[in-house]
Design brief:
Blueprint lengths: L5 E10 L6 E11 L4 E5 L6 H9 L7 E9 L2 E2 L5 H7 L4 E4 L3 H4 L6 H12 L4 H14 L5 H4 L9 H13 L5 E5 L7 H18 L2 E6 L2 H7 L2 E6 L2 E7 H6 L4 H8 L49 E4 L2 E3 L4 H6 L3
Parallel strand pairs: 3-8, 3-9, 6-7, 7-8
Antiparallel strand pairs: 1-2, 1-4, 4-5, 9-10, 10-12, 11-12
Helix pairs in contact: 4-5, 4-7, 5-7, 7-8
Length: about 325
């Protein structure tokens, strides 16, 4: 088997408090192989983006790694010297942020922003880096790239700005691409173009992808595998096709039942009742139990482990056998 390019081992993130640590992300295990495209799915506040930022070393002020580890290509990222870790960002690991208008520098031309990484990490001259920036803009589908390379971010549309972000991310040929809901602010036509672009770039270069989103349709179009997060924990993993066809965790099933299905326009949407638990008051038992239609008394007594439920699939639920018997 191919060794994982990225490995999270029991990763926990949160806030240190005198009265006890507050765990926002709790005991995450995740492996991503070279060329694999993994989606992190869940409601807002489930810990998806925080997990992604921990990989990139961009945790918000006050949030710390409370336990576990992050390995990239066999190297420990958490214990790595800051200078060495910064050196990995660009040529090895790159990130596409959610809102390019806040991620891009408003007073620097977009061509110069794309060229900055190759000049810094690849040692290219100013002219060579500028030429590469134009080539990358062509590659990501930006028309008239020579002219638009001289533009400032506010002069471009949202779709073009997101393509600039992607061009910046792939400018040094990274092996791992992290995407934090990069299509949220785009209309559906531009969103589809950006998703196809990311998928094509990963297929062309063999880049591994971790894609954070709450949109199940986006995962279907972009990823090969997924990990479903709830209340800071991974509750189900597996290939996208088989997991969506037969979910083995009630939360995954609830996400699918509450999302529109344009192949079945007459299907009634079923919302998930209640709200996710407060991270400072996370129960020791199954965190989804208060909202679950399959709950049993033992679900409220102990937290179910993430266990294999089928070849290549895992779920953290005591009632997976019941879900397997219910048509999706």
């Amino acid at each position: 088997m191919t060794a994982p390019l990225l490995r999270l081992d029991g990763l926990s993130l949160g806030l240190r408090r005198s009265g006890g640590d507050v765990r926002i992300v709790d005991d995450i295990d995740l492996e991503v192989a070279p060329g694999q495209r993994v989606g992190l799915v869940g409601e807002s506040g489930s810990g998806k983006s925080l997990t992604l930022r921990a990989i990139a070393g961009l945790l918000p002020a006050g949030v710390q790694v409370l336990g576990g580890g992050i390995e990239y290509n066999g190297e420990d990222l958490i214990g790595m010297p800051a200078k060495r870790r910064r050196g990995l960002m660009g040529p090895d690991i790159a990130m596409v942020f959610q809102e390019p208008m806040t991620a891009l520098n408003p007073v620097v031309r977009v061509g110069d922003q794309i060229a900055e990484g190759p000049r810094r990490h690849l040692g290219l001259s100013k002219k060579a880096a500028a030429d590469l920036a134009v080539q990358l803009m062509t590659r990501v589908g930006i028309p008239d790239p020579e002219r638009r390379a001289r533009a400032y971010p506010h002069e471009l549309s949202g779709g073009l700005r997101q393509r600039i972000m992607i061009a910046m991310a792939v400018s040094c040929g990274p092996r791992l691409l992290l995407c934090d809901e990069p299509t949220t602010a785009l209309d559906v036509t531009v969103q589809l173009q950006v998703l196809r672009l990311l998928q094509g770039l990963c297929a062309e270069t063999g880049t591994a992808l971790v894609f954070v989103t709450h949109d199940l349709a986006v995962v279907t179009q972009t990823c090969t595998d997924l990990s479903v997060m709830y209340a800071g924990q991974i509750v189900e993993t597996g290939p996208v096709v088989s997991t969506f066809a037969q979910p083995r965790h009630p939360y995954t099933r609830g996400l699918l039942e509450s999302a529109p299905d344009f192949d079945h326009p007459g299907r009634v949407l079923v919302p998930i009742p209640g709200f996710p638990p407060n991270v400072s008051q996370r129960p020791a038992a199954c965190p989804f139990a208060p909202r679950c239609g399959f709950v049993q008394p033992h679900c409220t007594e102990a937290r179910p482990p993430l266990a294999e439920v089928a070849p290549g699939r895992e779920a953290a639920c005591y009632e997976t056998h019941r879900l397997a018997e219910v048509p999706a």
